[in-house]
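Q: Start with the shorter request: fold the first protein.
A: Done. Sequence, then structure:
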Amino acid sequence: MVIGTMSTPPAHAGSLWGPSTPAEPTIVTHPNRDKPAVQGTRVIVVLLFLISAALVLVVTVCGWNVLESAWVIQVAYIVVYLTLAFFAARWNRGVLPVGAALAVLLTVFALVSGPFWFDRNHPGFAATNYLNAGLLGVITLLLVPVQILLIAFAMRGFNQGWNVEVERPASMVGGTRPYADAPPPYPA
């Protein structure tokens, strides 16, 4: 790779339309983040990520001795869901479709594995650590509606445009009205 440097900065006389003037400082605002519906969606998405991670943690800890190799997937889900909750709380819109896709996969896992917890209540099966296997089955099946809600609210949040940025001059942000020089709206 070749890196070139200039001994002196280029002298610009401005743009094609005349000499350049110092630009007024701009402030980047996110207008969609101020709406109550958007803020509510973000809180619900973060709570659903945390609830999902907690439910998977309960199933993992209480059924640790009978999970065999499935604990790797469950621990990964806990870590990923906590990470997604952190980024969703920081208004990162990109984690929402990832979270929705993982929620679809976890819904399938829960639907398949939930009934098998109920089968462990019969004689001949190893007992779980802390909770009854039937209760772990209920908790596993409880993941299904939580994941469906997570999918719905994550897609709602994705459509709300958390990432929209508007640049405004610093003089228009603060105590003055943005677009104060605009004409009044037409009467209805």
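Q: Next, the second protein, separately.
A: Sequence, then structure:
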Amino acid sequence: MSDPSATNGLRPRATLAALAPFVLVLAACSSSSSSSTPPASQAAASQAPASEAPASQAPASEAPASQAPSGATVTLKGLAFSEAEITVPVGKVTFLNEDAVAHILAEGENGVEVASPRVQKVSISPGTQGEMDFTVAGDYHITCTIHHAMNMVIHVQ
């Protein structure tokens, strides 16, 4: 019978030899991703005066939070509207469904559609969007007929 201590002494060496290529690959991958020199676009941006904002960034104070631009988009997420109340001009409002479930939006409250709706209800599958066309100024209560707690008001001017 062979000496067990001799086999135990070889096993760690064999394991280390087998792992060495993996350690080298990991070390090579991790060291190539760090760089002390920022890209030219970052360097130029960091040298610009603080008072200058990039052209792609508009000041947040241009429009009040409750005043949505023409062609406004409302997000449906977490079984809720992103805004409880918005003001828009006559026209379309887009509803973007980021939930994993469908929504049916209609003019009404607490999941109940009004008897004579001024806008057509829209069914929106998960990950898609739908539009409601507001052709007449006024206040519109919008609800989800599936999820009764989803309610919002759209003021159309």
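Q: Describe the second briefly.
A: The CA atoms of residues 112 and 145 lie 6 Å apart. The chain has a mean pLDDT of 73.
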